[in-house]
What we know:
This protein has 3 helices and no strands. It has helices at residues 10-43, 47-57, 62-72.
Amino acid sequence: MWGIDDGMGWWMIFGSVWVVVFWGAVIWAIVHVLSRGNRQASEELSALDIARRRYAKGEITKEEFEQLRRSLT
Length: 73
């Protein structure tokens, strides 16, 4: 009677596409901002900080750390 039985019209498909595009853009923006923040945090570390982390993780020996520390300071 009011066109309700016509099923999903082209306008509903168009609306569904825009919802998917909107949420895709929101998710992309969040991922982009978070990855950018992680990149900036790692770029702010000094060479000596990186050497300290490597020594703490056991990637370099005490002698290697001392040599790096002397050459960096």
